[in-house]
Amino acid sequence: MSSAQEDMESTETPRPADATAGVTDATAGVTDVPAEVTEDPAEVTEDPAEALDPSPIADPSPRTVGRAIADRLMAGGARYAFTVPGESFLGLLDGLVEAGIEVVATRHEGGAAFMATAATQLTGRPQLCLATRAVGAANLAIGIHAARADSVPMIALVGQVPRRFRGRDAFQEADLVGSVGRLAKWAVEVDEPRRVEAALTEALQRAQS
Question: pTM score, two decimals?
Answer without folding.
Answer: 0.69
